[in-house]
Each structure stands twice: as structure tokens, then as C-alpha cells.
Amino acid sequence: MSGDTDVRIEGGEKRVRADAQRNLDAILQAAKAVFVTSGVDAPVREIAEKAGVGIGTLYRHFPQRADLIAAVFRREMNACAEAAPILAAEHPPFEALALWMQRYALFVATKKGLAPALHSGDMAYCTLRTHFDQNVTPALRTLLAAAVAAGAVRPDADADDLISAVSSLASSGYLSRPGQTERMVALLADGLRLRP
Fold first, then answer.
1. Per-residue pLDDT of the chain (196 residues; tens, 9 = 90+)
2. Hey, what long-range contacts does 82-89 have (CB within 8 A, 24 or more apart)?
3. DSSP structure class, residue 9
4. Per-residue DSSP letter, 120
5. Which of 25, 31, 139, 169 has a C-alpha 20 to 30 A away from that of 150?
6. What is the model's pTM?
7. How far apart are CA 39 and CA 54, in angstroms?
8. Which residues pair with 7 in a beta bridge?
9. In angstroms, rounded to a whole number, what is the distance separating the alpha carbons of residues 117 and 137?
């Protein structure tokens, strides 16, 4: 039966059936949406209902709330990092960089709902900074280097500064109008252009 086919679980060695992987994906997607709208303290039952799974299924995958939060955050980091080579293949270097900066701003919006938990000191979160540094930051560095090499971006642009700037814009409480974060990130990207 096709539902019983084994697949590898994201980020681990454990093998799960395809239907279990679908449940896991649904839980993570639902948790992301619920955390953004209701915060990380939202009832687990709300996440299970949104995912279309029973509460027991959710707890089998994530016995502790911190495990679920860390998994959502890691998945979002991976999606952000994986977007970089796709954008680079489909767009000119400056455009790929600018689009990735917008993608990263969306990631920060997800992170905003997770921030209180991530700074709690829970051991479930201790590897997330390293994962970010090994995946997200190199994705930006690659796009930035390509844009600089193409002569589209100032050579003094720094990836760490850009990460901080986009993070600040995307998490600012002052940017509350619809589309304002996207416009501000676009202005930031435009400021990187190498001009004669």
C-alpha cells in the first residue's frame, strides 16, 4: 500500500511512513500559521485541528511544545536558505538578491511569533543559531557575492549587516501599514545598487 512507503524525516535519521510524513508536514504548516497569528502559547488542540490530525498524533511527533517550536523554526530557516539557489537560477543577480531579502523578511515575520520562546533558554533551541549561521547566512553571502561580481551591488555591502537590517525592518513595531515592510526592504535593496 502506497501510504506505508518509508521516507526519511526532515533533519533526522528516523524513518517514517509516507502518511506519517504527511501528518508531520501538516502539523508544522499549521503550527507556523497558528504561531504567527496567536503566538507560541496557542492551544496545541488548535494546531492539531488546523492540521487535521488528532492531538495524540501531534504529541507523538512533538512530545514537548519546545520541540514543535524548534521544528517550525528550523523548517523556516531551511526554506529560506533553499530559496537562494532557486532565485539565483531564475533571475539576474541583483533581482535574485532583492527577492531573497523579501523572502527573508517573511521568515522574520514568522520568527516574530516565536521570539519569546526562542530566548527562553530551553535546550530545544540551542542548536538553532548554529543552524542559521550554517544555512541562512551563507545563502545570502552567495547571492550578495554574485551581485557584487556582476557589478550590480556596492562592493562594501556586508551580509551580516544586511541580515541585521532586514531583521530590524521586518520586526519593527513601527511598520504597521499593509505592505510597508516589503516597501522598506525594497528601498534597502535599492540602496545596495552600484551607481556610476
1. 334 434 444 444 455 678 888 999 999 999 989 987 888 888 999 999 999 999 999 999 999 988 998 999 899 999 999 999 999 999 999 999 999 999 999 888 767 666 666 677 778 888 888 899 999 999 999 999 999 999 999 999 999 999 999 988 888 766 667 788 899 999 999 999 987 7
2. 82/139, 83/139, 84/139, 84/140, 84/142, 84/143, 85/139, 85/142, 87/143, 88/142, 88/143, 88/146
3. P
4. S
5. 169
6. 0.80
7. 21
8. 16
9. 22
**Residue listed under C-alpha cell 543577480:** 93
Joined together, the cell numbers standing for residue 70 give 524548534
Q: Which three cell numbers stand for residue 190?
A: 535599492
